[in-house]
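Researcher: Here's a chain I'd like modeled. Treat it as a single chain, no partners, no ligands.
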Amino acid sequence: MNRRALIALLRTSVIVVLALMVAPQALPAQKGGSAQKEGQGKKKESPPPDYNPYPPGILPADLQSELDRVSREVNLIFQQALAQWRALPPPNLTGQPPTLQGSGYDMVQTLGKLMNFDENISPFKNQACASCHMPYAGYSGPIPSVNLTMVAFPGSFHFRAGKRTAQRYTYAPWFPVLQLNETQGLFFGGNFWDSRATGYLLQNPDAEQAQHPPVDTQEMGLPDTACIAFRLSQAEYRPLFEQVWGRGSLDIKFPHDTEKICGTPGGAKVFGTDTTPVKLSPEDRTQANRVFDNWGQSLDAFEKSKEVSPFTSKFDAFLAGNATLTPDEMAGYSLFRGQAACNTCHVDGRGSTDARDRL
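Model: Modeled as a single isolated chain. C-alpha cells:
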C-alpha cells in the first residue's frame, strides 16, 4: 500500500471513530427536542426537592406516577385544542360596537380551553388548571388515590397541597354575584366552597374564581398576577388571544428578570410580602391587570360551553318538557320539594344551593 493510500485510509478511520463518538450524544438531544415539542413547546423549569412534611400514609404511594399520567392527558387535550383553534373559520368583525360574528363564541371558548390545559401557567410549567379538573372526573380531581387520602391536590411545587378538594367546573358559571337577600336574611351566590370569589368587580363569580388558583401558593403558585400576561405573551395561541381581546393586548414591556420571577413560586422568601415582584410601569401594570381579567372571562366562556356544562341529564329534559319521570322519580321530586324540604337549601330546579348560611 503506497503512502497516499495509507493516509487516506487513516483519515477515513478517524472520521468514522469521531462519528461513532458523537452519534450517541446526539440522539438524546433529538429525543429531548421532540419531547419538548410534545410538552406544549416550553422548556420546563427544574423543580426544587419535594416538599413532604406530612405524616406517613398521607401521600399516596402512586402519587408521582399518577401526576405524570395526568400530565400526559393534559398535554393530549391541549394539542387537540390547538387543532380545534386552527380549524375555526375566521370570524367576521362587524357591527357597532364591533363584535366577532360567526365563530366568535367558538373562539372565546376555545381560547379558554387552551388556557385551561396549558401547563405553562405555573412556575415550573408542570401544572395546568385541568391538572385538578379533568373531564372524566366531572372536571374535578382525576387521581383516585388522592381523592381517597389527602383529598386536596398538590400544586406546581410538589407536594405542597391545596386547602380543599377541587370544586367541579360544571354549571359553576350560573352562580350569581354574592349578595344578601334581606327578606330571607341569607347570602346567595359567589363561587368556591366558601364563596370568596364574590364577582364584585367583573360581576361574574366564575371568572373571578378562575383568577385565584394561578396565584395561590398551594396551587399553581405564580408570584404575581402579571405572570399570567407574561406566560400568555409566550404562548403558541397568543394570536388567538389577541384576535379575541384586541391586537397589542399582550404588548407589555416586561423587565429582563420576569422569567426568573415567574419561575419562582409565590410565597418564596425572596419576595417577602411583595405580591407584585414584576416591576412594571403604571401603564403596563394596568394592561397586565386587564389581561388577568380576560384570563378569567375566557375560562368562564369555556366552562359555559356544552363541552363542560351540557345540561343533558334526564332531569334537564324533564324541566324542558321533553321527558317524563317514572312514578318513583316523581315521588322523589315531590318529596324533594315538599315534606322533606330539601329545596330549602337546594334550590328547586338546580339541586344545588346558593344559600351560604346553610352550608
